Amino acid sequence: MHIGSLLVFAIFLNFNLVNAQGEIMEAHVSATLESVLILNINPDVNVEFGIIEISDNLYQITRKPDDIHFSVESTGNWSLSVSASDNYFSCVDDSSCKIPIDFVGYQIENKGTNWDNGLFSHIANRTKDTTLSLSTKKTTVLVNGNKNNIGGKEQNAFVLRWKLNFDDDLLKIDKFYSYKIKEGYYRADFYITLTEDNR
Description:
This protein is of the alpha+beta class. The protein has helices at 2-25, 170-178; strands at 37-40, 47-55, 58-63, 68-74, 78-84, 88-91, 98-100, 104-110, 123-125, 132-133, 139-144, 157-164, 184-188, 190-196.
């Protein structure tokens, strides 16, 4: 009777020990993976150019807009759009003097190792072979290709180059003359918007 009680107690103690060891060794692990989406660009950039009238309805650009260097770091696919903050460039010295925003166009040149040769590469670049006019409408310019545009700033490095595109379009030249442009420097703000591309 005494031996039986001891045996039962030993078995019960052993069961509790195994149970306790199981609880000590058991661990609940959870991790949340956050995606990274970073646009590296100088926050103070804008579009600015200078112009003078050298004779009646004949203008000369005295300063071209500066190129904008930027890069993207992302753990997922992304798309990028460009838009202007206003419909007009305003003269720095006299805000009543305006030039329509679409007199400036742009192209984005790829400097990274992710190819931008269309939808079958890493990135589809709408400005690869053409110039887009600046607009207040958000215009999607760079999108994810079939090879994915995931990567850091070495893979996704770009230069946004501005082009004064009124000088090769006769309709725009006529419209331009009607504004009776004042000499000076003209400026406008613009947005580059980076978003996740879940397609």
